[in-house]
Structures are given as C-alpha cells and as structure tokens.
Design a protein that fits this description.
By secondary structure, this protein is an alpha+beta fold. The strands form 3 sheets. A 5-stranded antiparallel β-sheet has the order 1-2-4-5-3, with helices on both faces. The chain has a 5-stranded antiparallel β-sheet with strand order 6-7-9-10-8, with helices on both faces. This is Spore germination protein.
Amino acid sequence: MGIGSFFKQKGKQQSKQKPAIEFDTDLKKNLDKNLEIIETMLEKPNDLVIRELSLGRPDYRCAVVYIDGLVDKPEINNNVIKNLQYYAEKQELPKDTNDLINEVEKELISTGDVSKGKTLDDVSFALLYGSAILYLDGIDQVLMLDLKGWQTRSIEEPVTESLIRGPREGFIENLRTNMMLIRRHIRDPNLRFKTYQIGRRSKKNLVVSYIEGIVHPDILKEVNRRLKTIDLDDAPESGFVEQWIEDSFLSPFPQIANTERPDKVATAILQGKIAIILDGTPFVLIAPLTLGNTFQSPEDYNERWLIGTFLRLLRYGAAFLAMFLPSLYIALVSYDPGMIPPKLAFSIAATREGVPFPAAIEAFIMAFTMELLREAGARLPKTIGQTIGIVGGLVIGDAAVQAGVVSPIMVIVVAVTAIAAFAIPSYSTTIAFRLLRFGFMLAASFFGLYGVILVYIMINIHIVNLKSIGVPYSTPYAPTFFHDWKDLILRAPIAMQTRRPAYMQTVDNKSRDKEKH
C-alpha cells in the first residue's frame, strides 16, 4: 500500500469520527439537566463522583460533584456533606434563590475558599482542577469549593543545585507550595503574584511574581505581553514557556534562568527581576538574565567575600577551559607547535608516536565519546549512571591509549575539559559551552589559532547583540555599569553592596535605607 493511499484511508477513518459535542455555556436551573450535561461532557468517567442530597425538606435536592483523587475527601465529608445533611433537619428554606445560595455559602460550607460559578466553563475548569461543585436545584449558579487534595512530593533539597552551605529546601510540582516558599523568604506587602492561564486544553495556572516599587515597569509590561501571546495546547514544563518568550531561539545561550531554589528566586526578585512559576514543575524561571548571572551561585554570598571571589574566579577559569582547551590543543599541535615550550612539545610528540589519527580527529573521537558517556549516565538510574560515567570513562580511556588510538595527553585534555564544564552553576550555560566547544574545535582543525580567534570574535558579536526581555545580555560589560562590577567577576563585601543592579533600572535602587561611608 502506497503512502498516498494510507493517508487517504486515515482521512476516511477520521471523517467518520463523531464531532465534539457543543454545550450551552450557561448553567440550567434544573438539577438533573446540569448533572446530565456534566456527565455527558466527561463521558461518565469512573472517577466522577456525584453525591445527591436532600436539603431542608425531602423534596428539595442538591448534589456535590467532584473528581476522585483530585480532592480531599475527608474535607468534603466533614465540611460539606455532613453540614448539608445536618441542614436537612430544618423545614424552612428561603424562598428567594439568591438568599438560599448565600445562606448555604455562609452558614453550611466550612471551607476557606468558596466562589460562585455561572457558566459551564467555570464548572469544568474548577472540577478538573480539584474543586468540588455544589449544585442546588432551581438555581442557575453553583458553589465551587477549593478542596484540592492530590498527592504531592515533599519539600526536599534540589538535586541539580546542591550547596555545601545554604538552605536545603527546593521547589516542588505544587504551585501553592512554591508561592508559599517565596513568601517565606520575602515578607514584603508589595510582593505581587499575578496569575495567568496557559494551554488551550490543559489550562494550567502560571504566576508572575515581582515586587511592586522595585521592578522596572517596562520589563514587567514586556513579560506580561509575551506571556499573553502563548498559544499551546499544554505547557508540561516551564521550558516550554522559556522557549516561547525568549528573545532569540537561534542562540545557544539561555536568555532566561531556571532554578529549583527558593532563596535564589527571592534574591532575584529583590534585585528587581521577575519570577515565573508554572504549576506542575519545580523549575521556576527568572527574567531577565545576563551572562554574568550564569557564573553566580548562592554559595558565593553565604561564604566570606574572599572565598566567594575565589570560587567565582575559579568558575571563569573553568569556563575558559571548557570551551577552549581542546581547540587550543588541536591548533598548537597541528599548526603552531613552535608556540609550545620545547620540553612539553617533545613530551607530546613522544606520546603521539604511533597514533594513526591527526590531532583533530583524535580530539573529536574522545570528545564525542565523553559526551556519549555523560548522556548515558544522565539517563540511567542514579547508581548505575554514576558507575557508567566513572568506570566507562576509565576503561575506555585506558583501552584507547593501550590500543594506540589516542594519546595519553588527549585523554587528559578531554577529562579536564569535562570536569571544568561541571564547575559552571548554570546547567543550560554548560550545555551552550559544550556545543560551542565543537565549533572551536572545527575552526581550529581548518585554520589553527586564527580559526579559534575568529569564532571567539563571532561569539562576542552575538553576545553583544543578544537581549533578555529587552535587557542587553552582555551587561554590565557592555553597556558598562561600573557599579555592578562589585558583584561580577569579584564579589565585594556585603557592606559595600548598597544598591541593586544598575542595569535593571529599578524604581527603588537602594537595598538599604542608609549608606555607611
């Protein structure tokens, strides 16, 4: 059967499917009709629970509807159904329907978050998001009771951002819990949480968090504008939001930070940045982001400034090695051996004796093998992954040297490069450097040091032109903000950091009430 006939048959099968049923958006006054509509819309799933009750007198009916597994059943039984059954002992009901629904809301429902719904869209969204719906016969409104009770992961230390000294709590997949963790760090009444719904079908809640009076209004306006343009069926992870609102999808560099640490998010918000929290993921987005931010870690501030400065300098050195070391090895060995000290050159030549490949092919083989081991170790279970990464690297490296495929110095170069990449706090930036490393290696293979310098210039041009939510990615290097250099490559003492980052152009730029001179 040809591909054309296959698609024709598939089209015929799809045309025979029943179209989606359209419902009137307004609720009905008849209880049976409302229950029939909700059952038909969901096609009577096994987890749909409908509990019908009598209220006030035997002939007056009401119903509690919820999805089993999404709600807290003890709360429903104790604070809703039990109260409604107790009310059934009364013989009089308010004649006015508005009085009846208000009386039920104020006197019978013992839950904190209660709202009224008037349309089928209100009911369906609340029902599928973990709320219980209370229908009253003869009333075209419902009470939506926020009684979410699904299973969630407990608050644990982030796996991807572990610290030696610092808080041990991390975000989880529950939106309310993540908002609570931020409020625990920032007890400012000006802290704002603005809620959006994204996903045409999933309708997930997304919250934008910032401090009014600090954040620049234009940055906040631009973030809100971009979030409103999101048009997806579902956003299962914050990475979908990040890719939608970033400035350049062609750039290898991350333009929006992501983190599992509440302390890191709180620090960013206090600097005038914006946090984006998506329900269902522990990774919170921080915007805008600059290149200098990717080398900063919360541990820099938890230790004394000399230690923090040393660690930050170490990371910059690690970034240099992660990008340039293999390409410099290729360029010097293949094109400019005269630039290598004589004793080191003789040692490299001796170790390369008998190797059948040129330095470029040798480097690509080892770099590709290392990336393969790293990816395999990340995908396997934790205990097995560590074994594969360590044992696999040792065995393959030693076997390659013994077989004469690569030289020992090449194994050292690739190993140091791999270790240096792990010293960068931002995993997204690490991936970008790993990709750029292959570009440098390719340029060094054809043009030597000239190729390395040429690619370096091109990357700098790209970084200078790159922006994150309108903020230059290369700031505070270019445009230059000398005041922000206190917390860039060096980490100045806390007492000297009296202002928020100047490149953020915050409304309130002072982080303390009075500066001490």
